[in-house]
Amino acid sequence: MNWSLSFEPFFPWPVLAALLIPGALLAFAGLWTRQRGAWLRLAALAALGAALANPVLLDEEREPLKSVVAVVVDESQSQTTIDGRSAMTDEAAAELEARLARFREFETRVVRTGRTSSATENAQTHLFEALDSALRDVPPSRVGGAVLITDGQVHDIPDNAAALGAPIHGLITGEADEMDRRIRFERAPRFGIVGKPLEMTYRVIATGDQRGPVDVRVIINGEELFIEEALIGRETLLEIDVPNAGRNIIELAIDPVDGELTGVNNRAVALVDGIRENLRVLLVSGEPHSGERTWRNLLKSDASVDLVHFTILRPPEKQDGTPINELSLIAFPTRELFVEKIDDFDLIIFDRYQHRDVLPILYYDYIAEYVENGGALLIAAGPEFAGNQSIARTPLIAALPGLPTGDVVEQGFYPRLTETGERHPVTRGLEGAASEPPAWSRWFRLIGIDRPDGQVVMQGANEQPLLILNRKGEGRVGMFLSDQGWLWARGFEGGGPHVALYRRIAHWLMKEPELEEERLSAAGRGMRLEITRQTMEESAPQAEITTPSGNTLSAELGPAGPGRFSTSLETNEIGIYSIANGDLTTLAHVGPVNAPEFGDMISTEEKLAPAADATGGSVRRIADNDLPNIVPVRRTGSASGNDWIGFRTTDDSILKAVRRVPVFTGFLALALLLLAFGAMWYREGR
């Protein structure tokens, strides 16, 4: 029973004071002057005041509240990937929860953290964030304390841990004498020029007094290139050549040694985006024509392209007596371009070019050899390709994907994608291609060819080939069998997607990875692995995935559009995934690169010690699952000892009911009041 006295006056306190204070002053004045009956007058006034104040005894029925104790269980990858830690953690959490359940003073809240789909949370161990979430609805007076079961590698320890107002205890998993080595990048640029050296630095770190050289394997895009030596603790310079445009995965690896804690952090990863140095393109226009500047304007608008453009303004057979030095601003340096520096060009374009002895016949052999050895050639054909001076009648025939029939079709037609073109990356998804007829303008000229060699991705009048793409040796050849593309550029009948088409053709010829017909790509988006397969086939085989820990998974690739198949799956491991699909393989890194979670995996008491000391708690290792005893303590008492940990109890309670007992009411109160006034009048009357 909880008794207390309360007052419920019949008048407001100011009114009550106005009534009683004058009487009290008169009574005290009587006492001061020693008048007879002064004490009786004061007693009568007190009885009147008590009656008007209406005192009430309250009996409160209260239910005591429990202190809330949070048990935060670390399930991050530094715990789960090391043998023994996960089992030790689970056993300690179960035993601690059972012990806390024996105390009526405590309410236990168990929070498990570290297993999420968030890349940020998986990259670091955020135990205090989980603790804050668990106690967010608990008033400070009811917080009994917290226990963190972890390896000690916590990345969100606050500077003001004492603000919790309750002890924080740390129970550390792992052994006290663990040994480990790890490698990390110190300086890793995000971008590099393809084919050019890129400087990076790294460091090998080891616990204890480990010294000496370590063999470091350098792996780029899954291929081990070389092994070099590095001294433990010293920053080491690494120089590599960026192999490809786009994303490159640079990986450093050291072999584990006997007794090492884990090999997970024996790898360091850097993602380097390869940027192509300016591409060199040679454009040779056979004669001035309406579409001559279309290719030029497109290539000049691309900042990554260095364009060399020549136009044959006056053919050699046209003799009018004009001096040679007045025929052009500069001489056409044929030998320099097609013999000495031909390999410097990434792409050669012949735009309506015909053989007129401007180029010696031998030079066509050099161009064909250039293609065979990995070069790129594009023929933008006009009517001259079907004539007697066609370049198909030169040694360049060895590189061409089709021979002219001599026919020139002069009629209006809509360029259309073939079935192959609907799947090919160069023409797939061209704006306006999905409707019938296509939502672009007509063309009016087509050069006929016989037995095309390669992939016909666009067709013209009478379903004849319009655009052919072909591989020749190590190089590539494209043939555009019309010179009417300028109609799209000029907006005739609404124009067409000439910029997208021409640019894709040029970049496919120059081996842009994203435009490969058969390509497997993968990327990490947070903790999700996304896989895409480009193929000219009707379906894609199942993807085989190898996780960073060596486990294998399978995933079906579903249609994602013509020539594209993809899938997406959630992962719970940070690191490099290897994906195989048919004959293709690729790598993808999921999660943050070089996440702190895998940086230092040695269990430690040092990181949590300042927070525990500031709150009156303690940090100790779990030895043979011998957990400390639990002791309820007052808010001002000590919260830890050699073999025990304490949690604060609370005085908070819930009011369930109140019983009122009036003190100065009824006949007894009336009798006392009458007695007091009667005695006063009696004394005054004598």
From TrEMBL:
Entry's transmembrane regions: 12-32, 39-58, 663-682
SUPFAM superfamilies xref list: Class I glutamine amidotransferase-like (SSF52317)
Protein keywords: Glutamine amidotransferase, Membrane, Transmembrane, Transmembrane helix
Gene3D superfamilies the record matches: 3.40.50.880
Disordered, as annotated region: 536-563
Compositionally biased region (Polar residues): 544-554
Listed name of the protein: Glutamine amidotransferase
Source organism (scientific name): Nitratireductor rhodophyticola
Highest classification ranks of the organism: Bacteria, Pseudomonadati, Pseudomonadota, Alphaproteobacteria, Hyphomicrobiales
